[in-house]
Amino acid sequence: MRVCFSRPAGTAFKVILAGALSGLVCFGQNSPQAHAPQASSSPSRAAATSASSPQKVVMRVGNEKVTQAEMDFLIQNLNPRVRQAVAARGRSVLGQQYSMMLLLSRKAVNDHLDTSPDIEREIALQKRQTLAQAEYRKLEGQVSVNPQEVSAFYTAHKQEFEQASVREFIVMKKAPGAAAGAPGLSPEQAQARLASIRKAIVAGTPIAQVTKKFEVPNEVIIEPQPRTVHRGQLIPALDKVAFELKDNQFSDPVDTPRAIVAIQVLSRQQPQLKDVSDEIESNLRQQKMQSVVDALKAKTNIWMDPVYFKTPAAQASSQAAPQEQK
User: Fold this and answer.
1) CA triplet 152, 156, 162: central angle to 5 degrees?
2) 166 and 80: one domain?
3) Number of domains present in the structure of the chain
4) Dist. CA 309–CA 249, nearest whole Å
5) For residues 99 and 202, what is the distance between their CA atoms, to the nearest angstrom?
6) Number of H helices, E strands in the chain
7) Less CB within 10 Å around the terminal CB: N or C of the chain?
8) Which CATH number covers residue 187?
9) DSSP letter at 216?
10) DSSP 233
11) What DSSP state is assigned to residue 30?
12) Are 271 and 165 in contact (CB under 8 A)?
């Protein structure tokens, strides 16, 4: 759960604070003295709080002091895009937002909002989520995938990585009951139009000429440039034939609720192991992590009230049963 609060409109960093706080548990709960460097007249202590020292105080909000280390931690927990924005535009706006958060959180404590049951539950939930994420990262760091496992997976699932270069043709159907002049064709007209397009391409007509002759905005859509698809990317009826047809063959038209669709398969390619090794490693790592989590669940007694956690379908069925008995 992200910690978020209302921000003044017009700020250039509207998403900074929400992103920055996503990695933190809570703020304003520690005693100011816990973070404040102790004053000392010792030259060595003064040197320790120099401009390069993490313990240097870089912000004060009332009696609360914020060190460079705290702000650096905040910046490190920004998502990469926002962190780049901070690097490019400076830390001033982030500092202003953070100081406002400290100010409001301190006032909330003074107003005893921290003792509200809902706020206590929210803080507890945030703490649990942060701890769970930390534990997940720790377990993830213990999972390893070696090159032999990657190679073995590729060999066993080689066909799944096959790619096809296809061109798609879509002829929109007129919606039932649509007014005259509405975009789309009748199913019969759509089938005939698709057949004409196919005939022109088989006859060797350049795709640019076919597109110019047949394409109609919001009605007939032709992909002039082929695109590469993986298994599972197309609708099931087309996905199967995309990896069965020979080069330059057309699929049979597929009738969908809104259009008649067909594809032309131009070629198929089999990526090499080096091209998909990162993807395989990531998938294997996720599988191993899921096994770790499943094993952890299996060793823990988890019970959920079957009535409270009943699925909507089960609820509808149980509600309908008494009526049927009548």
Assistant:
1) 115
2) no
3) 2
4) 51
5) 68
6) 13, 8
7) C
8) 3.10.50.40
9) B
10) S
11) S
12) no
Residue 285 lies in a domain: no
What residue numbers bound the domain in which 132 lies?
Answer: 16-141
- Per-residue DSSP letter, 173: B
Tokens representing 226 are 């082929």
DSSP string, 87-142: HHH-SHHHHHHHHHHHHHHHHHHHTTGGGSHHHHHHHHHHHHHHHHHHHHHHHHHT
179 and 244, same domain (yes or no): yes
Nearest 10 degrees: Cα torsion 35, 130, 20, 65:
-10
- The token duo for 274 is 């080096």
Question: In this structure, which amino acid lies at residue 211?
Answer: T
**pLDDT at residue 312, as a whole number:** 86
Last residue of a domain, one of 269, 293, 316: 269
Q: Which of 74, 31, 35 shows the shortest CA–CA distance to 57?
A: 35
Indicate whether 280 belongs to any domain: no
Strand partners, 264: 167, 250
Question: What is the SS3 assignment for 284?
Answer: helix
Identify whether 43 is part of a domain.
Answer: yes
User: Cα 248–252–258 angle (5° rounding)?
Assistant: 120
Does 8 fall in a domain?
no
pLDDT, tens digit (0-9, with 9 covering 90-100), for 208-256: 999 999 999 989 999 989 999 999 899 998 998 999 999 999 999 999 9
CA distance 322 to 326: 7
Provide the residue type at 142 as one letter.
Q
Which pTM does this prediction carry? 0.62
Nearest to 194 by CA among 129, 245, 259: 259
Evaluate whether 20 touches 94 at the Cβ level (below 8 Å). Answer: yes
Query: Of 165, 326, 131, 133, whose CA–CA distance to 245 is shortest?
Result: 165
pLDDT (tens digit per residue) in 14-40: 344 554 444 333 333 333 333 333 444
pLDDT grade for 322, boundaries at 50, 70 and 90:
low
